Write a sequence for this structure.
């Protein structure tokens, strides 16, 4: 029995070595928890998700064992694609962003008055470009390496 367990551990170490992925499910779960409301509610739900082993299942079983292994062998995580971001400030301004399949980022900025601006961010090596809805260059930023 001990030899079988040792063999499984060794095989798992060889098969899963270098398998550090994007942890898409865990990030989505943490993002959801952070969007519930005030800091007290977020903290209580965070605590409950550790007590009821939701985080353990998300991180240990689903993300690490299944999704990150799929990402390691195929190059993409099924839950990390179409990754999105949303933030709203205290004045009512908000920004929403979605990662596109081609690697670009679609961004929508909405002011507290309801005025919206749509941009697409593209990155080529050390240059980030912001394009408007018609594809015209609005801004360009060079990243120092």
């Amino acid at each position: 029995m001990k030899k079988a367990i040792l063999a499984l551990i060794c095989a798992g170490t060889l098969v899963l070595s270098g398998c550090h992925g994007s942890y898409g499910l865990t990030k989505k779960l943490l993002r959801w928890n952070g969007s519930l409301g005030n800091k007290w509610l977020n903290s209580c739900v965070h605590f409950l998700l550790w007590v009821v082993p939701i985080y353990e299942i998300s991180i240990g079983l689903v993300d690490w064992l299944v999704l990150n292994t799929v990402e390691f062998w195929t190059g993409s995580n099924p839950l990390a694609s179409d990754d999105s971001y949303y933030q709203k400030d205290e004045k009512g301004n908000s920004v929403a962003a979605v990662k596109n399949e081609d690697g670009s980022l679609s961004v929508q900025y909405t002011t507290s008055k309801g005025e919206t601006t749509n941009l697409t961010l593209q990155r080529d090596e050390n240059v980030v470009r912001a394009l408007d809805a018609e594809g015209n260059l609005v801004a360009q930023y060079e990243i120092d390496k």
